[in-house]
Design a protein that fits this description.
The protein is an alpha/beta fold. The chain contains 8 helices and 7 strands. It folds into 2 domains: 117 residues, NAD(P)-binding Rossmann-like Domain (Rossmann fold, 3-Layer(aba) Sandwich); 74 residues, N-(1-d-carboxylethyl)-l-norvaline Dehydrogenase, domain 2, CATH 1.10.1040. Helices cover 41% and strands 15% of the residues. Helix 4 crosses helix 6 and helix 4 crosses helix 7. The longest helix has 17 residues. It is elongated, with a radius of gyration of 18 Å. It starts with a strand and ends with a helix. The mean pLDDT is 94.
């Protein structure tokens, strides 16, 4: 299988590390290239940051790092994956998409050596939605002077065995992405009201 990846050097390295390169070929695609090489699977880790680069591909699976964008807004052959910082390197890749294509994509990824967890095709998927709420609650706690950023991070890592504390995770993901996700979720449900302290940052 030939897999073509578009992403930062760090994203490409993480994704390539998940693939059994003794069997499969991995190539890197740069946005300024005029022609898209033929591949069996396309992965765009910068989709929500820079826009689509593989929109011309219609007959092969295209995986895009689209945590907020749902499949309703995407082409039929597109599968979403959670490629946010702190998640992209996890053992299993969270994917979501059209019911007709998601099982096929999961099988192709498994063949390539990437284990997956299939999420409902909703804004935020599973991991980002939960972590965004934890980060939001941490900002509420900070504003109420419950503790400091450092102590909240330590308490969450010690008490829940999370890899990062909420403020650490916010920095890794990017605060604007967290605010954007919470904004979209808030349109669905008022429980996603953004903490004033998070809005100010």
């Amino acid at each position: 299988m030939h897999i073509l990846i578009h992403g930062t050097p760090e994203q490409v390295a993480v994704l390539t590390n998940k693939i059994d390169t003794s069997i499969h070929q991995v190539s890197v695609f740069k946005k300024d290239e005029l022609l898209i090489p033929e591949a069996d699977l396309y992965m765009d880790a910068l989709f929500e940051d820079e826009g689509p680069v593989f929109k011309e591909i219609e007959n092969k699976p295209v995986l895009v790092n689209a945590v907020i964008t749902t499949s309703v807004q995407l082409a039929a052959n597109t599968i979403r994956f959670n490629g946010w910082g702190g998640f992209i390197g996890q053992e299993k890749m969270e994917i979501a998409g059209n019911e007709n294509n998601i099982q096929l994509a999961a099988k192709q990824l498994a063949d390539a050596g990437i284990e997956t967890v299939i999420s409902a095709d909703t804004c935020g998927m599973i991991g980002p939605r939960v972590v965004a709420m934890i980060i939001n609650e941490a900002y509420f706690a900070l504003a109420e002077n419950i503790s400091s950023r450092e102590e909240i991070d330590i308490a969450m890592k010690s008490g829940t065995n999370y890899p990062y504390g909420p403020f650490e995770w916010c920095e890794i993901i990017g605060i604007e992405k967290i605010k954007n996700l919470l904004h979209h979720l808030r349109l669905e449900n008022t429980r996603y009201e953004i903490a004033p302290a998070l809005i100010k940052n």
